Amino acid sequence: MISSQKGFRHSPAGDAVAKRIRGAFVTLGIDVSATNDEVIKAYRRAMSKNHPDKIAGDNPDDAVVAEAQ
To answer: Is residue 9 a contact partner of residue 18, using CB atoms and an 8 Å limit?
Structure first.
C-alpha cells in the first residue's frame, strides 16, 4: 500500500500521508510489505478484538472502554 504513495514521496503532504500509513501498519501489527489480504485479516482481527459488543460481556471498566475506542 505504501507503494501507492510513491507520487507523493517528495512533498511534505506525501510524507505525512506515508507516515500515517506506516502508523496504521504498526497498529495492525503487520509489516509494510504485507499483501492486501494480510491487511484485511489484521484489520478484522483488531476490529473483532476491540469491538464494543465483544468487550461489553466482560463488564469492562472505563479504562478498557477508552482503550477500545
So the answer is: yes
